[in-house]
# Entry
Amino acid sequence: MYVQIVPQKAKPLSFFTNEEGMRLLMGRNYQQAETKPFALADLTTSASLDDAVIHVTNLVTVKDLLSHLGVDLALRCLRSEPQLHSKEYAKRELISPLLHVASVLAAGCVDFVVLFNRFAISVVEGRVHDTLKEHEGQLYASMHACREEYLKMKLKKRKRDTDPMTQVPSAGILTNGTAYIFYKCHHDGQPKGPPVVTCSEFLTVNLHKGISARSAEAAVMKVVRTMVQLFVDQQKALSSFWS
# Structure
């Protein structure tokens, strides 16, 4: 008796073309993503934060948290020009604060995926000097991988099994730190039909070297509100499935 070691030929997510990613996420009869407006969360700035957040940060209201975000981003842009960042770690310096604030407001947690009951929302970074759309294949493949991992972990479903969670969308965020596109893969009210993908408009974050805290807060507000609503919608869909 002997054991044969078979080399793995798993394809890195970054190698997926847009067409390959769409076929993986939606199947052979996929359709191109349709651009639609994404809902914005209605943030009541006077609302109190969660007690745990208040305890560890001394920030009391939503306004306090958003102001803190502005200060954080202003400091990160103090001596460098965000538009010129080409390294992954530098881009994450701009992306992470938004993800953390949005996840706090939506009661999730961040590990460069946003987790709700262990269901992940993918976040993929594109290179600053590339067209973000060139990285859609990687994002689609990542969204598919997150869903498969959840089905295997929580429902003990294998890849060949029918997906029982058609009412729960998969979501993703494509960004280079200064621009964002949001994605959602869902069944559009037809559980037995093929899934469809909708994406947001191209949202630009006008951060620049020496920006003030107040201007930084204003520059990212639409992105933060879109994130929060996306996260809240994901939570609601998961809660409905498990109830």
User: Anything to note?
Assistant: The CA atoms of residues 50 and 56 lie 10 Å apart. Confidence is low (pLDDT under 50) at residues 1-8.
